[in-house]
Amino acid sequence: MPTILQPDALSYKNAVFDFAFHPTEDIIATGVKYVPGAENNESLWNVRPSKKSCRGLAFSHDGAGLFTVSKDGAIGALDVNTGNVLIKKPDAHDHPINSVKLLTENILATGDDGGVIKLWDVRTGSETMEYTEHDDFISDFDFDASSKTLVASSGQGTISIYDIRKSKMVAMSANQDDELLSICIVKDRRKVVVGSQEGVLNIYSWGDWGDCTDRFIGHPNSIDTICKIDEDTVATGSSDGIIRVIEILPNKFQGIVGEHEDFPIEVIRLSHDKTYLASCSHDDTVRFWDVRYMTSEREEDDDDSDEAKDTSGDKSDDDSDNDGPSGGMDIDSDDSDAPKKKDNRRPKKQAPAASNPGFFDDL
């Protein structure tokens, strides 16, 4: 594999709560074009869409627009080429907005600190759905396009499931007595992985939402963010500042991508070309990690893996859920009744990227 230099870290004067990769170009919000090598990054623009902290960013599917959500409950839309604020919708939520994700080309999801989830039609700026089942902050979203299913994690210790075409919640899990901070759909929509305050990855089987079917132990601190590398592998960002790679079912610790010393990691995301994993932390930086050694090898092995699956019979994933310790981490499934230690830290968690310059055109 040819050598490629990682882009320089991006440093800021204030904490970075979220960032977003452009869907097709080497651009990362806050308006920076990242280039391999030292001192090559190029600032495209700088704008302050709200007087309160910006808590989440999301590019539109075509990359022409950028959504922002903020502590004052406002949603905005920016022109990616100029940084101009096209529209700001104040008081979109009664509480600070903590999570945002573009679900389809036209539907945006937002979740706030009061546990309210709203869906928005980006063509008109109108609210299409409101879900109020949670009583604590919405920490993260993921979405399955084929079934139009939104999954959300929350600070009250539950995950919730919604068919975005319907006004009522589909299901809510049992309470884990632990803040659930991050969520990711894997295994071709057969499993959902959820990171917790206590450092446990809770694994749910799709459609069986009552309780998790497996648990991965090994993170010494909270799992504040999860990024899918492929259907079998995720990267986790923890409050101990370390980015780990975890294989899901069989559960195995695969290694460490990088770290922000002892500073908690807020968000990790994979670039559009799967060359870089980027992370932001309480050290006020966004750092880039070259992960082609993971993504290219996995893509080359896809055909072999598909053939193996075709000939492996109908053995359930759950038969191999627990693979024992690996990589120096205690990763046995957790059936322990040992008491949990909570520090009640409220994560400054943000959400994925999406946007559209035509947002709220009719307002």
TrEMBL record:
The protein, known as: WD repeat-containing protein JIP5
Family, similarity comment: Belongs to the WD repeat WDR55 family.
Recorded hits in PANTHER family, A to Z, give: WD REPEAT-CONTAINING PROTEIN 55
Q: Where is this region: Disordered?
A: 296-363
Q: Which UniProt keywords apply?
A: Repeat, WD repeat
Q: Where are the WD repeats?
A: 90-130, 131-172, 265-299
> Where is the sequence biased in composition, kind Acidic residues?
298-307
Could you list the residue ranges forming a coiled coil in this record? none
Pfam families, A to Z: WDR55 (PF24796)
Entry superkingdom:
Eukaryota
